[in-house]
Write a structure and sequence with these properties.
With 318 residues, the protein is α+β, with helices and mostly antiparallel strands. It has 8 helices and 10 strands. The strands form 3 sheets. Strands 1, 2, 3 and 5 form a 4-stranded antiparallel beta sheet that branches. A 3-stranded antiparallel beta sheet has the order 4-8-9, covered by helices on one side. Strands 7-6-10 form a 3-stranded antiparallel beta sheet. Strand 6 and strand 7 form a beta hairpin. Helix 2 crosses helix 5, helix 2 packs antiparallel against helix 6 and helix 6 packs across helix 8.
Length: 318
């Protein structure tokens, strides 16, 4: 799998050469429970993390550890810097003001795959990876369908749009320029996404004099999502709108089939506010997803899907 990161942009699907202000933006459906959520009781850090919760609550026992750490939480220190990765929320950058000894928890979202006998985080499930990609493209598809010509031309626009997208050489965050809009890039990061930068801890008290010389490491707990969407766009670059929406329907229903059959079993402390918690079913979950991210609701009808297929995609939660 490639380490390259797909960076979406502002261009309209039918206008690749210019970037007017009203162009389409698409992004990870960040409030649709398809990425991991993090919480902290520290009020400063909450400014960055709260966007991903969408005002949903959680119980204390639903807090769990970060995927890469042996401890159930990440603890900041004096040299931690927490950065919002969303350009419109740079006011929440804590930088060197990040409180020391603050705890950051991941809400519990592990699922046991009964066939493999292995527990994985929700966003590691193959069906969820598929949904991350397919939902991220819905705003672009909506733009095409809202300005629909014929199904054949619509499908062609969608494929040309995907083939025109740039994949940078390195994992990086591209921002649209305020005054100069030469490259109309936009980071594939949502409001709840954040990066922690920190210096290597001191080994000895005397080392504090060399603070600027210590190596810095960056912790990006959403990189696996960015990589997944990158690879999904490359893998499915030849699909048209009909195939894209059909794949969305299939992935969504396959996920719920496995929950309903018991093939996927949620952790006992699985976050109760999650759209895919045991308190929901495939209908109520879809309603919650659309309420969290209304832009994911498909509006145009010139899709090439059958009436039954389109109504299934449109009205899963009706």
């Amino acid at each position: 799998m490639s380490d390259k990161i797909f960076i979406p942009d502002f261009r309209k699907p039918d206008d690749f050469d210019v970037a007017p202000e009203d162009t389409v933006r698409y992004d990870i459906p960040h409030q649709a429970d398809l990425v991991r959520k993090f919480v902290s009781s520290n009020p400063k850090i909450q400014q960055i993390l709260q966007y991903g919760l969408g005002e949903r609550t959680y119980e204390h026992h639903e807090q769990e550890g970060l995927p890469s750490g042996p401890t159930p939480k990440f603890i900041t220190h004096n040299d931690s810097q927490i950065w919002s990765n969303h350009p419109t929320h740079y006011k929440d950058v804590l930088g060197h003001d990040t409180p020391a000894d603050a705890e950051i928890y991941q809400l519990e979202d592990r699922v046991m795959d009964k066939k493999t006998g292995k527990p994985v985080h929700f966003d590691e499930l193959p069906e969820v990876k598929e949904l991350q990609y397919r939902m991220s493209a819905l705003p672009v598809i909506n733009h095409i369908l809202d300005n629909s010509t014929t199904p054949a031309e619509d499908h062609d626009k969608f494929k040309k749009y995907k083939s025109s997208l740039r994949v940078p050489e390195e994992h990086s965050y591209v921002e649209p320029g305020i005054n100069e809009r030469g490259w109309q890039g936009f980071p594939h990061h949502a409001e709840e996404a954040f990066t922690i930068k920190e210096k290597t801890p001191f080994e000895f008290e005397a080392d504090k004099a060399a603070i600027d010389d210590r190596p810095e490491r960056t912790l990006d707990y959403f990189k696996h999502v960015h990589n997944n969407i990158t690879n999904m766009y490359l893998t499915h670059k030849d699909e048209n709108i009909q195939e894209h929406l059909g794949g969305l329907i299939k992935a969504y229903n396959q996920l719920w089939d496995k929950f309903d059959s018991g093939e996927y079993e949620r952790h006992p402390n699985f976050w109760s506010g999650h759209a895919f918690s045991s308190q929901n079913n495939r209908d109520t979950a879809w309603k919650q997803i659309i309420s969290q991210a209304p832009e994911l609701s498909s509006k145009g009808k010139n899709t090439g899907l059958s009436k039954e297929e389109f109504e299934n995609q449109q009205n899963i939660g009706e």
